[in-house]
C-alpha cells in the first residue's frame, strides 16, 4: 500500500460516510427542502471525494489532468443544479410548509 | 478498493432511482435526479480509472455538461406547467 493508495483509501472512506449519510437523509426527511439538502450533500461531497481518491490513483498524467477538469466543472455544475432545483421547489409551492414559509418571508 | 467503491456507488445510484420512483411530488423527483447525475458521473470516472481507459473520462465530462443542461431544461419546462391544483 503506497502512500498514494493510503490517501486514496481515506478519500474513499470519506466518500462512503457522506454517501451513506446523504442516502439515509434522502429517505428519512419528509420536506423536499431537507431532502434537497441531504441529497445534494450526498451527491456533491461523495462524488467529489471519489474524484480526489481517483485523482491519486490515476496512472497517467493525461488521466490526472482530465480528472482535474472534471472536478472543476463538477464543482460548478452540481451546486448550481442544486440551487436551481431549490428555486424550483420554492416557486412551485407544492407543500403547505412552502406556503407558510412564503408568508413568513413575504 | 476500487471494487468496494464501485459497489457502494451502484448502491447509491439504486437508492436514488428508488427515491426517484417513490417521490410523491415533482420536486422530490428533481432532487433525486440531481443526486443521480452526480453519482453516475462518479461511477463513470471510477470505471475510467479502473480500466485505465482515458476515453471514459471524456465521456464523463460531456455527460456532466449535458446532465446540467438537461436539468436546466427540465426545471424550465416544469416551471411553466401549472402544478396540480394551483395555476402559477
Question: Could you characterize the architecture of this molecule?
Answer:
The complex is a heterodimer of chains A (106) and B (88). With 106 residues, chain A is an all-alpha fold. Chain A has one domain (3-105). Chain A has four helices and no strands. Chain A has helices spanning 3-28, 32-57, 61-92, 96-105. In chain A, helix 1 (3-28) packs antiparallel against helix 2 (32-57) and helix 2 runs antiparallel to helix 3 (61-92). The longest helix of chain A has 32 residues, at 61-92. In chain A, 42% of the residues are buried. Chain B is mainly α. Chain B has a domain at 21-79. Chain B is 82% helix and 0% strand. Chain B contains three helices and no strands. Chain B has helices at 2-22, 26-50, 55-80. The interface between A and B is large, with 52 and 47 residues.
Features:
heterodimer, A: 106 residues, mainly alpha, 4 helices, 89% helix, 0% strand, B: 88 residues, 3 helices, flat
Task: Give the helix/strand layout.
The complex is a heterodimer of chains A (106) and B (88).
Chain A (H helix, E strand, L loop, with lengths): L2 H26 L3 H26 L3 H32 L3 H10 L1
Helix pairs in contact in A: 1-2, 2-3
Chain B lengths: L1 H21 L3 H25 L4 H26 L8
Helix pairs in contact in B: 1-2, 2-3
What's a quick, concise take on this entry?
The complex is a heterodimer of chains A (106) and B (88). Chain A is mainly alpha-helical and 106 residues long.
**Rounded average pLDDT of chain B:** 85
CA-based shape of chain A: elongated
Put simply, the count of helices of chain A is 4
Q: Give the helix level of chain B as a range of percent.
A: over 70%
Q: Quick check: average pLDDT of chain A?
A: 85
**Quaternary structure of the protein:** heterodimer
Q: What is the CA-atom radius of gyration of chain B, in angstroms?
A: 16 Å
- Which range does the strand content of chain A fall in? under 5%
Helix-residue proportion of chain A: over 70%
Secondary-structure element pattern of chain B, one letter each: HHH
Our measurement of the CA-to-CA distance between the termini of chain B, rounded to an integer number of angstroms, reads 50 Å
**If you compute it from the alpha carbons, what radius of gyration of chain A comes out, rounded to the nearest whole angstrom?**
18 Å
What's the total count of β strands of chain A? Answer: 0
* Low-pLDDT regions of chain B: none
The portion of residues forming beta strands of chain B comes to under 5%
Strand tally of chain B: 0
Low-confidence stretches of chain A: none
Order of helices and strands of chain A: HHHH
Amino acid at each position: 500500500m503506497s502512500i498514494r493508495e493510503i490517501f486514496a483509501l481515506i478519500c474513499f472512506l470519506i466518500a462512503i460516510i457522506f454517501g451513506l449519510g446523504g442516502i439515509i437523509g434522502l429517505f428519512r426527511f419528509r420536506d423536499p427542502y431537507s431532502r434537497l439538502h441531504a441529497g445534494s450533500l450526498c451527491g456533491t461531497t461523495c462524488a467529489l471525494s471519489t474524484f480526489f481518491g481517483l485523482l491519486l490513483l490515476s496512472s497517467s498524467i493525461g488521466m490526472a489532468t482530465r480528472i482535474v477538469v472534471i472536478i472543476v466543472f463538477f464543482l460548478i455544475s452540481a451546486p448550481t443544479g442544486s440551487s436551481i432545483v431549490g428555486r424550483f421547489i420554492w416557486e412551485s409551492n407544492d407543500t403547505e410548509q412552502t406556503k407558510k414559509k412564503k408568508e413568513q418571508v413575504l | 478498493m476500487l471494487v468496494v467503491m464501485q459497489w457502494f456507488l451502484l448502491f447509491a445510484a439504486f437508492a436514488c432511482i428508488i427515491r426517484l420512483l417513490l417521490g410523491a411530488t415533482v420536486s422530490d423527483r428533481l432532487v433525486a435526479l440531481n443526486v443521480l447525475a452526480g453519482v453516475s458521473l462518479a461511477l463513470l470516472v471510477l470505471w475510467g480509472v479502473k480500466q485505465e481507459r482515458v476515453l471514459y473520462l471524456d465521456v464523463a465530462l460531456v455527460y456532466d455538461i449535458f446532465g446540467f443542461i438537461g436539468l436546466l431544461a427540465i426545471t424550465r419546462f416544469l416551471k411553466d406547467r401549472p402544478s396540480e391544483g394551483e395555476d402559477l
